[in-house]
Amino acid sequence: MINKSLRNIPPVHELQRDAMFIKLRQKYDVQDEVMTVHIRKALEGMRSDIKKGIVIDGEFAEIIWNDVENKLMEAHQNRLKRVINGTGTILHTNLGRARLSREAVNRVSEVAANYSNLEYDIESGSRGSRHDLVEDLIKDVTGAEAAMVVNNNAAAVYFILKAFAKGKEVIVSRGQLVEIGGSFRVSSIMEESGAKLVEVGTTNKTHVKDYSDALTGETAMLLKVHTSNFKTIGFTKTVTTEELVEIAGNREDVMVYEDLGSGVLYDFAKEGIGDEPVVQKVLETGVDLVSFSGDKLLGGPQAGIIVGKKKYIDRLKKHQLARVLRVDKMSFAALEATFRAYLNQRPTDIPTVRDMLHSLEEIREKALEFISAISGMDTFQADIIKEYSMVGGGTMPDVTIPTYAVKMRHDSLAAHILAEKLRKGTPSVIVRTSGDAILLDFRTITHGELPDLIKAMELLTYRG
What we know:
Blueprint: H1 2-7, H2 12-16, H3 19-28, H4 32-51, H5 60-76, E1 83-85, H6 102-113, E2 120-121, E3 126-127, H7 132-142, E4 146-150, H8 153-165, E5 169-173, H9 186-193, E6 196-200, H10 208-214, E7 219-225, H11 241-248, E8 255-261, H12 279-283, E9 289-293, E10 304-308, H13 310-318, H14 321-324, H15 329-343, H16 351-357, H17 360-373, E11 380-392, E12 395-410, H18 415-423, E13 428-430, E14 432-434, E15 437-441, H19 450-458
Parallel strand pairs: 1-13, 5-6, 5-7, 7-8, 8-9
Antiparallel strand pairs: 2-3, 4-10, 9-10, 11-12, 12-15, 14-15
Helix pairs in contact: 3-5, 4-5, 6-15, 7-15, 8-9
């Protein structure tokens, strides 16, 4: 029986002459060679199933063409897709963290579509440096002596440790040896850089004396890691950046470096949101170097931004790793637009800042507009409820922001099924579930996304 089924499988050359070959080739705009590859894979799959004893029900050729078309459709779909974030988590790591501002998107598009002066000095007509493109802008916003950009903040930490502490001691509080996500630990990054970790204090308490007593002739750096992804509360004590600068004192061979992580340029604490240290204020302590992320609370593209004293930044620019860790023209374009928004006192042009500061009235207005639009869809029961949004992205772990959400039930679909169907739609809509309902938090849904969100609901208005 198996041998008979194998003999009934149409050969490649026969399928190449089939009308479906030309039809699918034209529909998906692929070459003959690509079609043949997909046909061979479909045939191999069918042979494998038959040999396993699986009964093939239906016309073999039809099954093969269905398989080929499915593979062509899959190959033509973009893997990186647009998503509507209905979770209320503003910096959702799994959903790409910070959204870029309209100006940043425009700058990226312009630079990507054209030649640019990435490493060309237009004034002199000679080779330039990409480090110069945004340095002055970053300096103006932060007040730093100098600045440079690498591809993310983990890279910045590694780079600084490698450049200034390889084979030497770096003193850090035991309570700051954090894991920053994806199993990347500060202690592991230090080990990879060749720096010698010297832990001081305890998990919950570290004193000035702990650092002072640990200083030796081999000490190259006092490192402070801002624990932006967790909070230790209760019986605690930490050493401030000012105190670390004082401990280093006049020792030219010991530098003070703070890994800020999140990178706050707008003082959210003034709005009653968290207590994240502002980059500008940290630099005023006299710290030698500070690094932070570009795609977290800053609201820009993925990047690691290093600011601080010129003598150290200049050394980093000349280091061999500077080329390994450099960013591309599109990241520079997005960073330039993002920092310019801060410089021009227009931080709410940046989606992250805007979403953090959204008033409850604005959020409720969007929720009401959505409720009104779906009011005729009798398969849904929807109500506006008070909820809380999260900041996310490994920042402000103990901070929640009041919001409005729409709580929805479908008359025949369980909450997890409804969430799955929305997730697999186009565009994908990501929601939270709560008991037998889904929650759509309108803090992270824009007015411009409402038509697509409403359309997604219209596709789910069937029963059963």
